[in-house]
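Something for you to look into today, if you have time. Just paste the record in under my message, thanks.
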Amino acid sequence: MEILTIIGYAFLILGAVFLFLGALGLYRMPDVYTRLQAGTKASTLGAISFMLGVGFLQPEWMVKIIIIIIFLTIANPLSSHAIARAAHKRNVKPYTKGEADALEEAELSTEKRTQA
């Protein structure tokens, strides 16, 4: 077996494991904020690993795969940030036991300063 094939299959397995852990995190986490964190990090790393595995198995596709990886590295965190911000604006409360919301406190103090 060629070394690129072994590396490719190792990345495919690693990607599949991270994608599974991301799905498990989405299922197990209690609120939208922790689900976003689990889903975004694991799915980004899983997709990148999976695509690198395909790139090692099909070296002629590697340039296209690198472009897709760059897009995913930018798009996944941005989309999860937008979802978290929308949830926060809709007053979706995180699952906590009495902890303060630092972003809400900062927004309230900014509003008070602009009104004064």
User: Anything to note?
Assistant: The chain has one domain: 3-95. The mean pLDDT is 88.
